């Protein structure tokens, strides 16, 4: 049986998922908005990470029947449950930066 920490990290681990979740904490975003906010992620990697987060019920993808098609991503209710953890990581990251600059 997997440790609960391992289960959690399997869902949100990796270089980009936590950042994607962080960027979606304040509401819906379109794909290109996310790309602009994360200029070092490739188109392909963002697509893959969003799909995985969608499969894990962290992110909801909404497609609007428009021309050109409009697609928005947002955190699900379950995805929002990770907000305190992401905020704690943000705060801890600030402490790490401060310690590195000493």
UniProtKB/TrEMBL annotation:
Ranges for domain HTH hxlR-type: 3-101
Transcription is among the record's keywords: yes
A Pfam short name: HxlR
Record has Isomerase as a keyword: no
Entries under Gene3D superfamilies matching the protein: Winged helix-like DNA-binding domain superfamily/Winged helix DNA-binding domain
PROSITE patterns: HTH_HXLR
Any one GO MF annotation of this record: DNA binding
SUPFAM superfamilies assigned to the protein according to its UniProt record, in alphabetical order: Winged helix' DNA-binding domain
InterPro entries assigned: HTH_HxlR (IPR002577), WH-like_DNA-bd_sf (IPR036388), WH_DNA-bd_sf (IPR036390)
Keyword terms: DNA-binding, Transcription, Transcription regulation
Protein name from the UniProt record: Helix-turn-helix transcriptional regulator
Organism the protein comes from: Clostridium paridis
Lineage of the organism: Bacteria, Bacillati, Bacillota, Clostridia, Eubacteriales
